[in-house]
Amino acid sequence: MNKLKVYDLCLIALLASLEYVVFVSFSNILYLELITFTICLFAVSFRSEQAFLASVVFGSIMLVFNGVNFWNMMYLCIYPVYSLLISMMRRWLLRFPWLLCIICGSLSFLTGQLLQLPFMLFSKNLTMIYLLMGLKTSFLQGAISFIACCVLFKPCYEVLKRLRSTR
Fold first, then answer.
1. Residue 148 lies in a domain
2. Which uninterrupted H or E stretch holds 153?
3. Residues whose CB falls within 8 Å of the CB of residue 47, separated by 6 or more in sequence, listed in order
């Protein structure tokens, strides 16, 4: 990782705060989960370390504002990994945007399932019930993230590309 400059630190803070705003803004609307789309968008639009650190800061913000619990700790674990995965595939995803949409929907579905895993600490049966009951919600969230990525990726990417080039 290169040394981070003031520009990088400000950009990371801006991206993390945008991720938090997107999360909070849409969290009260059932099934509308756009944070995975936002993580994917930033991962293909900015350098890997910028997108990764923004995801880490977002997860930290979640812990600070919403309290330390299993659910929020999973955000700190899941989204930076998503950011790294998408960043590593950036070249192919920009060449084949439909692939990004499929991956975004899949990751959104997977998030709903992965968030249930810490409950295994309490009971495997309880976790299985949560996983099965959460399947419908996760499928809908994945489908909505897929559609959002299909509709929003290109215009959002173009805006972020212009923002990057104005530096």
1. yes
2. helix 124-165
3. none
Instruction: Give the span between the Cα atoms of 82 and 99, in whole angstroms.
Output: 15
Number of H helices, E strands in the chain: 7, 0
Q: Which domain holds residue 47?
A: 6-165
Residue among 69, 81, 161 nearest 122 (CA): 69
Identify the CA nearest to 79 among candidates 32, 118, 46, 111: 111
Mean pLDDT of 102-128: 82
Does residue 1 lie within any of the structural domains?
no
Tens of pLDDT, residues 124-151: 777 777 777 778 888 999 999 999 999 9
Distance of alpha carbon 72 from alpha carbon 64, whole angstroms: 9
- The arithmetic mean of pLDDT across residues 54-69, rounded, is 94
Q: What is the DSSP letter of 2?
A: P
Window from 31-45, 88-102, 119-133 with minimum mean pLDDT: 119-133
Structure tokens of 3? 């040394």
* Domain count across the chain: 1
Angle at 138 between CA 135 and CA 140, to 5 degrees: 110
